[in-house]
Design the sequence.
């Protein structure tokens, strides 16, 4: 890594390894071809200095656009493949977007404020390309918010590549594969590692495990990453032996000992490591000893490039990889402490010289790497006339880390209505949830309970997730 | 109800709720071909914990992750009370 690359393209050119390939499900692109050709159909200059909404389904196209836009666009907003289209207007407004890069499959963009819309395609078109660098591009990543509208998290190339500066290119080419969406923080880290150190094989949205593994195998995968949920799915697919990676990485959720042991058994020649990162706080650490949790010596370690502390029971991270903050209306809610560290909201407990993650503070539920805010689901449940109040909580689950569970208190009476049975009410509430919420937010189980605890200040007593 | 029939009925319930087409639950059916996704499996495992009182995937013991429906049933039968 050079000391201060001015753009992603310059940075990967200076990384000290030959440029590799982007292996998408739709096409395979040699990165070296980007030196003299473009995926943006000759429209790159129309995006210079603009705030660009990167709204494509195909991760290959997103990868190409990110490589071309960094250093050119003033701002780049990374929309993941599963982003609900109804959130686009609020995101465009929050990021002051005036341009959009989309694929032909995407929803027709008639968004307010968008002046330029450019299609991206895997077939590179040759053309005179200066690749002139004019901007330190702001990278905006999305996280889920309490109201369902994502928060806009501000980074740039320097914060995003902070964790890569320890990575030295090896003698053999590295081929990274990832189950993640490369538009989300964890996947973006793998994208950046892939293009700096060799090649990248991103999973396509909805792609079956064996199909993805076949592409990874054909590309010569050496390193592969996913959440514990992704890995359990792979272990249960019967397709694990299709690949023989040297390095297996878990992040995005709590890695328990069972999944770590199962991966070590499935890949005896691989280093199995689990890592912690968050969109707001950046990369925290990587654990390579095969054990769940992390050594207590990592906390308050003197001289560490990434300073980890525990305050109020949660992990705080301070490093040059921290995000700058939230954009727009949510700016004041960015979880930065008085000492400048970022509160990850992940609760820790020390047992026998190791810290173990307990779940999220404030009730936020992590279902297979996706954050669920209980308030959003409670609002849907509480809209049922016979629901007096409800509490949505996490229930530990060995497949997806957690699932959503709901406790519901029935109303005493409803004018003109007859009290439904607990069974009928549960069915109706679930039906409403399925109609309005993404599948992973719908409660896996609903219990009708006599009461819920309410604190002296009148708030629902919310157990930590 | 036997462990097997409890498991079969939870597979069927969750498939119906998640609007997924469930394959015939034979012992050699690969779970990946069953029609259920990860979220569906997560719900099945949570409901089975309520119904059978056990979660064989519990994190502190070694688990052979099941690949077929038969593996899945045997995993539960081996730990069911």
Sequence:
């Amino acid at each position: 890594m050079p000391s201060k690359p001015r753009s992603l393209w310059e940075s990967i050119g200076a990384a000290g390894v030959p440029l590799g390939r982007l292996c998408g499900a739709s096409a395979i692109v040699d990165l070296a071809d980007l030196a003299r050709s473009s995926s943006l159909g000759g429209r790159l200059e129309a995006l210079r200095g603009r705030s660009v909404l990167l709204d494509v389904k195909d991760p290959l196209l997103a990868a190409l656009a990110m490589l071309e836009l960094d250093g050119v666009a003033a701002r780049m907003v990374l929309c993941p493949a599963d982003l609900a289209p109804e959130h686009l207007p609020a995101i465009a407004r929050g990021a002051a977007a005036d341009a959009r890069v989309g694929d032909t499959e995407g929803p027709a963009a008639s968004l307010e404020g968008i002046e330029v819309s450019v299609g991206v395609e895997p077939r590179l078109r040759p053309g005179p390309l200066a690749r002139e660098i004019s901007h330190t591009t702001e990278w905006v990543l999305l996280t889920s918010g309490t109201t369902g509208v994502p928060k806009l998290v501000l980074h740039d190339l320097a914060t995003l590549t902070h964790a890569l500066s320890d990575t030295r290119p090896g003698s053999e080419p590295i081929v990274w594969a990832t189950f993640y969406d490369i538009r989300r923080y964890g996947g973006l880290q793998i994208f950046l590692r892939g293009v700096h150190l060799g090649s990248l094989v991103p999973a396509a949205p909805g792609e079956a495990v064996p199909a993805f593994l076949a592409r990874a195998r054909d590309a010569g995968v050496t390193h592969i990453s996913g959440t514990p949920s992704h890995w359990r799915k792979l272990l249960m697919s019967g397709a694990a032996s299709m690949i023989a990676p040297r390095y297996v990485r878990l992040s995005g959720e709590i890695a328990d000992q069972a999944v770590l042991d199962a991966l070590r058994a499935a890949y005896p020649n691989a280093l199995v490591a689990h890592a912690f990162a968050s969109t707001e706080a950046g990369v925290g650490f990587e654990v390579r000893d095969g054990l769940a949790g992390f050594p207590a010596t990592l906390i308050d370690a003197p001289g560490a490039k990434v300073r980890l502390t525990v305050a109020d029971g949660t992990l705080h991270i301070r490093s040059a990889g921290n995000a700058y903050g939230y954009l727009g209306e949510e700016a004041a809610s960015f979880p930065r402490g008085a000492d400048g560290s970022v509160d990850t909201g992940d609760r820790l407990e020390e047992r026998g010289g190791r810290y173990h993650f307990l779940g999220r503070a404030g009730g936020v539920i992590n279902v297979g790497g996706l954050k669920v805010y209980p308030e959003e689901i409670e609002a849907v449940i509480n809209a049922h006339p016979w629901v007096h109040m409800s509490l949505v909580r996490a229930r530990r689950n060995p497949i997806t880390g957690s699932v959503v569970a709901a406790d519901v208190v029935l109303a005493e009476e409803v004018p003109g209505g007859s009290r439904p049975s607990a069974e009928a009410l549960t069915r109706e509430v679930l039906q409403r949830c399925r109609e309005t919420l993404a599948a992973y937010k719908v409660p896996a189980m609903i219990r009708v309970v006599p009461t819920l605890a309410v604190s002296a200040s009148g708030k629902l007593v919310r157990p930590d997730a | 109800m036997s462990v097997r029939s409890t498991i079969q009925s939870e597979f069927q319930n969750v498939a119906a709720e998640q609007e997924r087409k469930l394959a015939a639950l034979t012992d050699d059916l690969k779970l990946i071909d069953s029609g259920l996704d990860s979220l569906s499996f997560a719900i099945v495992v949570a409901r089975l914990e309520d119904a059978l009182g056990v979660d064989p995937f519990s994190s502190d013991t070694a688990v052979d992750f099941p690949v077929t429906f038969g593996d899945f049933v045997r995993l539960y039968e081996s730990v069911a009370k």
User: Anything to note?
Assistant: The first strand of chain A starts at residue 21 and ends at 23. Chain A has two domains: 8-350, 364-448.
